[in-house]
Amino acid sequence: xxxAVRNLQKRIPINPKRIIKTVLKILSxxxxxxxxxxxxxxxxDPKIKELNLxxxxxxxxxxxxxxxxxxxxxFGEIFADIVISTDRAIDNAGAFHTTPLFELYLYVIHGVLHxxxxxxxxxxxxxxxxxxxxxxxxxxxxxxx
Length: 145
Description:
Blueprint: E1 2-7, H1 16-29, E2 35-43, H2 45-56, E3 64-68, E4 77-85, H3 86-96, H4 100-115, H5 123-139
Parallel strand pairs: 1-2, 2-4
Antiparallel strand pairs: 3-4
Helix pairs in contact: 1-4, 3-4, 4-5
């Protein structure tokens, strides 16, 4: 699996090697042995708001958007883009008493879970996703402080 990191913002320093290692570890923990490519892109609120409006018809910034490229699943490959707002991470860190870096890694986990088929549209699905996120944060030794 190839993982690429693009940093298009300047508010939070990004460690691409650590992001790549985190994504590969999540895939391994989830038993994913597929090939393909995942791109993680860090942006600001105006950019993620533009994408949210264009692709999801929501005119507001959000923390993370995951795009799973449609392809025949029989090939067993993953091609996906995960876009993360560092502005949301900074704001949410204040609101949830965490750190911006913790929020970024939470969004990386959330985005990867989305491309693996997890959803958070219903209460039941959201609960399952939150449990998965908490488990992965613990296993990856990512604390909220």
